[in-house]
């Protein structure tokens, strides 16, 4: 089984209406569609671009206003997914539930279904500056092309949660990210490689680029999309199937051959998934 995946290096810039946001999103979807993409990944927090839309006083909005755009966001990506016949992981969007804010990844199916995965591990900035709540459950999602999981940015830095996703059957992790400097970017990127090696899976990741000068904590962005594989003979030696140009406005596209994962798990140069010493440490399955 193969799936063609694409990832957007989404350029953040100041806008004045929701229609401008919709037009930019549609542009990326149509670009990916030209490459016959089946799964398209947007970055974490890319909908914070909506906070640059001035309020009635001409000022940028705060994070507490972002959930007000949830229904237009859902309507937009449900429409784009249906029209393009593409699975769209529309990055993350902040939603409000029972008075709390959650950083939530959304998977839009071409048939209109929507699945969500709240971010499980919350960074200090999300907690102290944005009062974000943490998710408490991990799901995997079945598609006609394979089983996938959505783990957002900081989540990928915790081996246990990725191990759980693999134990539940995920062969591909989509990791939307948002980092403001090289340090944060490389933390996420290096951990993506480690998790791909440990679990013998693919990881598709991307981040925001550009700047939102009027939106707090979104003024700086450092991002690059990549499709990452295990480091073994059937795959590229550096474990990079595809990657973008750092901080450019672009998309990347790659084919993920899931059958190769089965081969390396069975008789690869190393068999890290099979060789877990669960007699010494917890089996996260």
Automatic annotation (TrEMBL):
Task: Note the Gene3D superfamilies from the entry.
Answer: Carbon-nitrogen hydrolase
Similarity annotation: Belongs to the carbon-nitrogen hydrolase superfamily. NIT1/NIT2 family.
Q: Would I find Disulfide bond among this entry's keywords?
A: no
Q: State if Hydrolase is listed as a keyword.
A: yes
Q: Which InterPro entries match?
A: C-N_Hydrolase (IPR003010), C-N_Hydrolase_sf (IPR036526), UPF0012_CS (IPR001110)
Query: Ranges for the CN hydrolase domain?
Result: 3-258
Q: What GO molecular function terms would the record report?
A: hydrolase activity
* Source organism, top-level taxon: Bacteria
The record, for SUPFAM superfamilies, names: Carbon-nitrogen hydrolase (SSF56317)
Q: Which Pfam families match?
A: CN_hydrolase (PF00795)
This chain's protein is named: Carbon-nitrogen hydrolase family protein
Report the source organism. Saccharibacillus alkalitolerans
């Amino acid at each position: 089984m193969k799936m063609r995946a694409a990832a957007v290096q989404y350029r953040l810039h100041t806008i004045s209406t929701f229609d401008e946001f919709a037009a930019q999103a549609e542009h990326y979807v149509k670009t990916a569609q030209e490459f016959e993409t089946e799964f398209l990944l947007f970055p974490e927090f890319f909908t914070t671009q909506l906070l640059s839309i001035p309020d009635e006083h001409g000022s940028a909005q705060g994070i507490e206003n972002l959930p007000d755009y949830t229904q237009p966001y859902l309507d937009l990506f449900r429409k784009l997914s249906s029209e393009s016949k593409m699975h769209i992981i529309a990055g993350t969007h902040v939603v409000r539930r029972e008075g709390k804010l959650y950083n939530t990844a959304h998977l839009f199916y071409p048939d209109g279904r929507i699945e969500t995965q709240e971010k499980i591990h919350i960074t200090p900035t999300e907690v102290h500056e944005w009062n974000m709540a943490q998710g408490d459950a991990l799901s995997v999602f079945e598609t006609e092309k394979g089983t996938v999981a959505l783990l957002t940015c900081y989540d990928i830095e915790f081996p246990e949660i990725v191990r759980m996703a693999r134990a539940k059957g995920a062969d591909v992790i989509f990791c939307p990210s948002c980092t403001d400097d090289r340090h944060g970017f490389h933390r996420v990127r290096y951990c993506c490689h480690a998790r791909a090696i440990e679990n013998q899976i693919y990881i598709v990741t991307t981040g925001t680029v550009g700047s939102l000068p009027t939106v707090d904590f979104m003024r700086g962005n450092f991002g690059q999309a990549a499709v990452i594989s295990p480091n073994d003979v059937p795959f590229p030696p550096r474990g990079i199937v595809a990657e973008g140009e750092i901080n450019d406005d672009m998309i990347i596209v790659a084919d993920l051959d899931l059958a190769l994962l089965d081969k390396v798990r069975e008789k690869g140069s190393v068999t890290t998934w099979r060789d877990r010493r669960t007699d010494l440490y917890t089996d996260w399955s």
